[in-house]
Design goal:
about 60% helix, 6 strands, globular, single chain, four-stranded parallel β-sheet, mainly alpha, about 350 residues
Length: about 350
């Protein structure tokens, strides 16, 4: 198991995922800057629910990357402080680590693969959010450090990433993101041309599996269940496979509702958004995305059937808390896969 994981209790808290703009707004409030009365009231209600243990507000790798891109040092520090204080170091796993766990769980449940596979979408700490084991991250604190010391170190790590320039890894990552955006734009144009001739979900699920770079097949081979896996894929289709892995199913659905808009080119920001929303929409009780992605997500029957609350706009936080309260806090962590 990855360090930093949490094990669900009998009554886990609701998981509320905030957009970066919400963290920035909360940071403004915390710094004593002018905000709307609605935000002030919602922030007070949120703090109350967090203190009661009813709500957890996890941060993600997306928040780390976006905070690091803020040019103003004081603002960067303020947002980083708000993220660590507000989340209490609770984090949500990135897609690239969670999808491997989901794949193992799928192969175990569907084909009896012998593997300890329980997806862990929620954990704690900066390393968990980045998808790293602590032994892969050179941390400036000993393992037995007090929580407050670790939180302080992580706050500064988020606020003060390397400002010297892009590392080789960063350059390669951005190259892959640009490449992905180009491929998605080309794929969208191709899909539009013969949209009526194919099953959208199956074709886009095939694209999702292809984006994994044969990782799922290689894992099936390693667990000696590749023959039944390939037979299942052949007879049931790609969506039957992908829908049993929640974050990948949501990823596929977000592609499905997004690609018809060929007038809006795919960008690196799309890649950035879709990766983190895939995990949040698959497992969180409530998500506050930007309006565009929120509107798109609500077009998906699969996403809607998971029961996730999607709140957008200026009063998104207040709406999300009101809806969670209406369901009776605490709300169960995550939702079971739905075969719609």
């Amino acid at each position: 198991m990855r360090d930093g994981r949490t094990v669900a209790s009998e009554a886990p808290p609701a998981q509320l995922y905030l957009d970066q703009k919400d963290w920035i707004a909360l940071a403004r409030l915390r710094a004593g800057k002018p905000v709307s009365d609605g935000l002030r009231e919602a922030a007070t209600a949120l703090a109350t629910e967090i203190s009661k243990g009813n709500v957890v507000v996890p941060f993600s790798e997306s928040h780390v990357l976006e905070t690091g891109r803020i040019s103003d040092r004081a603002k960067r520090q303020s947002v980083a402080t708000m993220i660590v204080a507000g989340s209490r170091r609770h984090a949500i796993a990135p897609l690239h680590t969670l999808c491997r766990e989901e794949a193992d769980a799928f192969l175990r449940l569907r084909f009896g693969a012998v593997v300890d596979a329980v997806p862990a979408p929620f954990g704690k700490g900066l390393a968990f959010a980045l998808g790293l084991n602590y032994d892969e991250l050179e941390v400036p604190w000993p393992p037995d450090s007090p929580e407050s010391d670790v939180a302080m170190a992580e706050m500064f790590a988020i606020a003060e990433p390397s400002r010297i320039g892009l590392s080789a890894a960063d350059i390669e990552r951005r190259r892959r993101w640009d490449e992905w955006a180009t491929i998605m734009m080309s794929a969208s144009e191709s899909l539009i041309k013969d949209r009526s001739r194919f099953n959208e979900r199956d074709r886009l699920s095939a694209l999702t599996v292809a984006m994994l770079g044969n990782a799922l097949l290689h894992r099936a081979i390693g667990l000696d269940v590749h023959r039944p896996y390939l037979e299942y894929l052949r007879t049931e289709g790609f969506w039957a496979v992908v829908r049993e892995m929640p974050s990948l199913a949501v990823l596929t659905e977000l592609h499905r509702v997004r690609y018809p808009d060929v007038k809006s080119p795919w960008t690196v920001n799309d890649y950035h958004d879709i990766r983190f929303l895939s995990v949040a929409l698959a497992y969180c009780s409530a998500v506050c995305p930007d309006k565009r992605w929120g509107d798109l997500a609500q077009r998906s029957e699969y996403i809607a059937n998971r029961g996730v609350i999607i709140a957008t706009g200026q009063n998104a936080l207040a709406y999300a808390l009101r809806e969670l309260g209406g369901r009776g806090l605490p709300v169960a962590q995550g939702h079971p896969p739905n075969a719609t």
